[in-house]
Amino acid sequence: MQNLQDHIHKLKIAKKLILVEGPKDKKALQRLGVKNIITLKKPLFAIVEEISAKTKECIILTDLDKKGKELYSKLSKDLKKHGVKIDNTFRNFLLKETKLKQIEGLTSYIKKFSQRNNSH
Q1: What global pTM score does this model have?
Q2: I need a labelling partner for 10 at 20 to 30 A (CA). Which of 2, 4, 67, 90 fits?
Q3: Number of domains the chain contains
């Protein structure tokens, strides 16, 4: 759990743009104090152009299910073509260390774990 808190803290202080699928994902991250979040409310090519015009590095936090992984793959490939570096640290941590599938479930996941750890 501590590792997860560390990762969240790094997201909060990072100046990188964070790309999520929808408004619920954005709200979940905002509840944790994370800023600089963009949602996929435009066609992917427009998102890629917007991000590559603003920054040289971003974090893609699409969901960790099949659809989210496909989106991640496409976005990552297109952004890299535009010279944007992708920071996968948090995403890889979530894939390896948690059973989380939806980014919007992050806040309840953290609550559940901190309650479980406090009761021991």
Answers
A1: 0.91
A2: 67
A3: 1
Of 20, 38, 17, 27, nearest to 86 by C-alpha is: 17
State the CATH number of the domain containing residue 28. Answer: 3.40.1360.10
Over the stretch 39-92, which tens digit does the pLDDT of each residue have? 999 999 999 999 999 999 999 999 999 999 999 999 999 999 999 999 999 999
Give the residue numbers spanning the domain of 25.
2-118
Cα separation, 66 vs 71, in Å, equals 9
For residues 57 and 26, the answer to whether their CB atoms sit within 8 Å is no
Torsion-angle region of residue 30: left (phi > 0), alpha (psi -120 to 50) or beta? alpha
Chain segment 46-60, per-residue pLDDT in tens: 999 999 999 999 999
What type of residue is 29? Answer: L
